[in-house]
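Anyone up for a design puzzle?
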């Protein structure tokens, strides 16, 4: 699918990833620039310049070998399904099955454990035409159903962990890619009657306490104002030790409680 190739391309050609590759190759120690220490933008641009120099001095094949050996190898041990996170997988699964003249998917609870505890586990399987397409576990029935729908899509597209294996080195160089250039990339937006909404909430880093404080001061407090408990703080504040009444230092006795 085109979306998966696009997601993999954006992952390995991101500024942070190219800068990491550049540092691993030792380019950081060879640069001579004014803005020291060098940022990710300069490091990624340096790696792109090296690829362009190889393409200019040698040929396209040598530049491709360099990219294959040092850039594409970053996809090793990377789950390609986590690079592209979309919303409403059950809706997409239903539309794909209807397009292929198949029945409506039916989520069913296969097994569960600890329903009345703090950490329940539900295993939901999705059936279609009396066949199990995929299953997954979750802390709620809704989450388990969503993860099971994603598992079904992986099986339909052939994007399981065993099937996604990249070939590098001498074996990878023997693969003729010219036959794949003319093959059209399939897009889900063109096949389905609705637009797929992507979500990057899964990859957003959580806020640190310092960032939460800054976000509260700059955004939240301007909108909702000062909380009522902060405005009444001076009525309940006991004061310093010099202003505190001596009665506060007297330990309560059992008969007075």
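Challenge accepted. My sequence:
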């Amino acid at each position: 699918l085109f979306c998966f190739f696009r997601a993999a391309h954006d992952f390995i050609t991101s500024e942070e990833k190219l800068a990491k590759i550049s540092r691993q190759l030792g380019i950081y120690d060879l640069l001579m620039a004014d803005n020291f220490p060098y940022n990710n933008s300069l490091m990624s641009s340096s790696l792109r310049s090296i690829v362009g120099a190889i393409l200019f001095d040698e040929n396209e094949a040598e530049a491709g070998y360099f990219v294959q050996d040092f850039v594409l190898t970053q996809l090793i041990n990377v789950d390609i399904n986590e690079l592209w996170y979309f919303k409403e997988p059950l809706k997409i699964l239903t539309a794909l099955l209807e397009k292929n003249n198949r029945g409506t998917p039916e989520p069913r609870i296969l097994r569960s454990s600890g329903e009345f505890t703090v950490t329940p586990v539900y295993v939901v399987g999705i059936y279609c035409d009396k066949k199990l397409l995929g299953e997954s576990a979750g802390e709620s029935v809704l989450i388990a159903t969503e993860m099971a729908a994603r598992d079904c899509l992986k099986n339909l597209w052939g994007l399981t962990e065993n099937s996604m294996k990249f070939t590098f080195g001498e074996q990878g160089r023997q693969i003729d890619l010219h036959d794949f250039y003319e093959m059209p990339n399939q897009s889900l937006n063109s096949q389905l009657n609705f637009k797929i909404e992507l979500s990057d909430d899964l990859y957003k880093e959580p806020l640190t306490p310092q960032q939460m404080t800054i976000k509260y001061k700059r955004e939240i407090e301007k909108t909702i104002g000062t909380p009522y408990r902060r405005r009444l703080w001076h009525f309940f504040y006991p004061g310093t030790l010099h202003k505190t009444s001596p009665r506060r230092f007297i330990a309560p006795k059992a008969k007075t409680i």
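A detail worth pointing out: The chain is about 45% helix and 10% strand.
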